[in-house]
Amino acid sequence: MSIPIADDPATSATTPAPAPAWTTLAAADGVSRAGAGPVSGRRVVLQMFAAAIAVMLVVSALGIVVVRRISEREAMNDASQLTDLLARAVVEPALEDTLLVGDPGAVRRLDQVVRSRVLSGMFVRVKVWSPEGVVLYADTPELIGEKYSLGADQRAVLTEPATVAEVSELGRPENRLEQGQGRLVEVYRPIWMPSGQPVLFETYTDYDAVNARTRDLWRGFGGIVVSSLLLFCVLLTPVLWTLLERLRRAREGREELLQHAIDASHDERRRIAADLHDGVVQELVAASLLVSGAAERTAARGDDPEQVAHLRSAATAVRSSVGALRTLLVDIYPPNLASAGLVVALEDLGSGLRGRGMEVLVDADPDAAAALDETRQRLVYRFTQECLRNIVKHAGADRVEVLLQRGASGESILLEVADDGAGMDPGVLRGAGPEGHFGVRLLADLAREHGAALHVATAVGQGTRWRLEILP
């Protein structure tokens, strides 16, 4: 009778319990981690240069913001200093008190000074305001005499003299004639009429000065940053390459030591297995034959039936010990898959459980086994061995099935190990169970290590079925 599994209905006179759902513990990607090679030095160097480029882009973006702020501040300082100089040396000496009442002659004489000595430079607009907000002078005549509301900062500099520079708000009504000239830097400060009356002197300069200073600063700053990062990468490359080479040699040394340890363990296990097989096992087989022969001779003479029973019991015990030792030999020194083949190796694993009184069915397709390389054959053997160990230790099963075949698509190899034992609680699959979760993680890690998919269907009292899907 087959073991009830997730895919088959339970054979029972009563209503069968719902089949356990499949749980995926590892997804297949076909990539083996066991043979992962060393890190490529060229790849690491390329990653370093890529990181350097990313850093340069970030630094450049931040640098542009910082440089523009610095340039704007420096350009405003320049405009403020030049405005102060012109206010004291050029405009203030040309003021006349009659300008306060709009005298055309005073306006004309001031305009001649402004056009000859101010507007010929970096300034694009000049205005003189009264404290009440009347435009006393502007290089655009249509603004003269108009009245606007002065801002709080503009009124403040008339009471507490200072020079203020800022990016002009061209949306204000008094700046309507400057709106077509792009961004402008506005500077204002107080100047005094011959009578001592303060008025507001205001200049506008082109924002192109900020852009020009930004370009100049960025050429210096950006060149230093880029050249420094490139020089750092060039200097770091041989150091990094040397470190990678040392890591590669250290890795090879560790792998060589590990291989020596594995070979030594392999040789020791083979020696122990050979000593047991050629010594103790053979002696026990001989003892079994001697005891069996003595039992038969005693039974033939009809001397003592009780003695015959004891001898036969002793012979059975010796044969059982021989079977257990042979099972142990398979665990200690598994068969050589390269010489004996995977099918024979799986049969040997099944024989070990048969020696414990279990019914074991091993159905391995030789073509499916031949489609696997040596690494994946070892995976199948180790996975089956671990499953059978868990079954013996935890399941309490009477029947076990081991099936190796090609998948439905023909592109994968399927290994299934099923038992009719106690099954597992789903919490164990999530690593929450008090017992058995380590074995589950071990099987899942084994599958992931070789890029295989692992599924399990189990429930308490309904046995367990493991399905390992391998991409050749």
Give me the strand/helix succession. Answer: EHHEEHEEEHHHHEHHEEHHEE
Per CATH, which architecture of the domain at 1-30 and 340-472?
2-Layer Sandwich
- First and last CA, distance: 32 Å
* Number of DSSP E strands: 11
Blueprint of the fold:
Elements: E1 22-26, H1 41-91, H2 104-117, E2 123-129, E3 135-138, H3 152-159, E4 164-167, E5 184-192, E6 198-206, H4 208-301, H5 305-332, H6 337-340, H7 342-354, E7 359-364, H8 366-370, H9 374-395, E8 399-406, E9 413-419, H10 426-429, H11 437-449, E10 453-458, E11 464-470
Parallel strand pairs: 7-8
Antiparallel strand pairs: 1-10, 2-3, 2-6, 4-5, 5-6, 8-9, 9-11, 10-11
Give structural notes:
54% of the residues lie in helices and 15% in strands. It contains 11 helices and 11 strands. The strands form 2 sheets. It has a 6-stranded mixed sheet with strand order 1-10-11-9-8-7. Helix 4 runs antiparallel to helix 5 (305-332). The radius of gyration is 48 Å and the shape is rod-shaped. The relative contact order is 0.11.
Give a brief rundown of this model.
With about 475 residues, this protein is of the alpha+beta class. The chain has helices at about 40-90, 105-115, 150-160, 210-300, 305-330, 335-340, 340-355, 365-370, 375-395, 425-430, 435-450; strands at about 20-25, 125-130, 135-140, 165, 185-190, 200-205, 360-365, 400-405, 415-420, 455-460, 465-470. The strands form two sheets. A six-stranded mixed β-sheet has the order 1-10-11-9-8-7. Strands 3-2-6-5-4 form a five-stranded antiparallel β-sheet, sandwiched between helices.
